[in-house]
DNA sequence: TCATAGCAGAATGGATCCAATTTGACGTCT
DNA sequence: AGACGTCAAATTGGATCCATTCTGCTATGA
């Protein structure tokens, strides 16, 4: 923990993503500070940042609340991600890839090929493919040489992805997940091909559609959010309907 | 000043946009706090926010520095704005406009028509058109019903727009500005027509190209030989090449 | 019995205090 | 003369303290 401030921020992010802080739950500075063993100052900073990221919403004079993300919001964010990564792919195609960028993308594709070669996939492989996927997308963003895309995306990075990534892997239907990720991987191949050939419009179209692959489609939207407002603290059993 | 914290933030933003804090200049918490007559706490919060907005960059253990925005960065941000507003226009076309949205957009167009009807334009008119323009764009973003677009855009709101909007009006060539804004206004008409007819793809294409109208094109990039963008203000004679 | 006023508790926002770390300079040694 | 080590100044980061304000309950009066 070389940077305690950043540590508080990422810890809270993780607590939200993991569901330790449930959607709709109220969070206050003092209990959170005590819980994490730090002072109120870094917590205050972190709350502001998390509000910016869309993970918290401010209740005037009553602290913050973990935002509930609706299905529409997620699909809207996915669409935003689609056009931005589409733009990135187009600009990457127009700029041309450097040798190391091409190399990095090819490695991602090859490692993915190896993963899917067996015809089945384990839970562990999914984790590995996930990091592979992240790397591929990051490389395309870099290749666009447009930092504004990253900025615009960083807002959505946690809102849809923290929710979707935690949710989107259905470990009870690994065969179904296999097909979904295999399809996404094929889109990666197509996107790389288009970028490497300098086909900007095609690369854009592929990446734009590809964003939808981060969803499990209708399957995703079946969770009922709890509308009750609770304050986190030591007495969480005291959350009776009051 | 009901919200001093917000006040500090917007004051600093204004100081950067107006050039009172020059690009590349270092800013520290204590002098800034004394200058604004507040404590270090709100300044610290504001610096974090300004860093997020891309107006400041952090120097490790040495405070912050006002970022210099390159021409490439601005054109990249404009392109991001283009695809996002294009997406908004398409979704607005797909969703259909509500009666009041249609009414609001038509009012913007009519007021713009009145402004341009005389065939010439004064500096005052430019200010008015500017607010008109803002309203039009905001209405389209609202009509998209996709808050993620606004989120993604808010990051870019200050970086390119604070610079470009202040920059982009060349008060010495109002006739040229007239033609430029007239063209932009025609694009507004076209965009509204496409949205109102439910032509999503056409609306998207128009708004996407329209983003470039926020630039003075090549003219913009010929003023700063060092690639840095300067803000025109009251003391524009002090812009010696240094 | 219901409504209103007042009071206590709680929570944020800002100010100040303390600690840790880095920068830059100065002096000395090789 | 140059380089290295040490020291002081400055600056951020975290912790604590005080003021303000909002909420919710309670008590009293109609």
From TrEMBL, chains A, B:
Domain HTH gntR-type: 2-69
SUPFAM superfamilies linked: GntR ligand-binding domain-like, Winged helix' DNA-binding domain
Gene Ontology MF, one: DNA-binding transcription factor activity
Keywords: DNA-binding, Transcription, Transcription regulation
Keyword DNA-binding (UniProt): yes
Protein name per its UniProtKB record: GntR family transcriptional regulator
């Amino acid at each position: 923990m070389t940077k305690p401030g950043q540590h508080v921020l990422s810890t809270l992010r993780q607590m939200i993503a993991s569901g330790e802080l449930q959607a709709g739950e109220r969070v206050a500075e003092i209990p959170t500070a005590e819980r994490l063993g730090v002072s109120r100052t870094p917590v205050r900073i972190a709350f502001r940042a998390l509000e910016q990221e869309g993970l918290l919403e401010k209740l005037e004079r009553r602290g913050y609340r973990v935002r509930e993300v609706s299905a529409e919001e997620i699909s809207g964010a996915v669409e935003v991600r689609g056009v931005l990564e589409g733009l990135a792919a187009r600009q990457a195609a127009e700029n041309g890839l450097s040798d190391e960028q091409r190399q990095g993308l090819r490695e991602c594709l090859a490692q993915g090929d190896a993963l899917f070669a067996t015809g089945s996939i384990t839970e562990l492989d999914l984790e590995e493919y996930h990091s592979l996927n992240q790397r591929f997308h990051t490389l395309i963003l870099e290749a666009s040489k447009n930092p504004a895309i990253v900025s615009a995306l960083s807002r959505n990075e946690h809102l849809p992805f923290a929710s979707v990534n935690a949710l989107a892997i259905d470990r009870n239907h690994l065969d179904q997940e296999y097909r979904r990720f295999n399809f996404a991987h094929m889109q990666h191949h197509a996107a790389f091909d288009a970028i490497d050939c300098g086909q900007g419009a095609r690369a854009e179209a592929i990446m734009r559609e590809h964003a939808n692959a981060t969803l499990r489609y209708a399957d995703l939207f079946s969770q009922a959010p709890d509308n009750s407002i609770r304050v986190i603290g030591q007495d969480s059993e005291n959350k009776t309907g009051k």
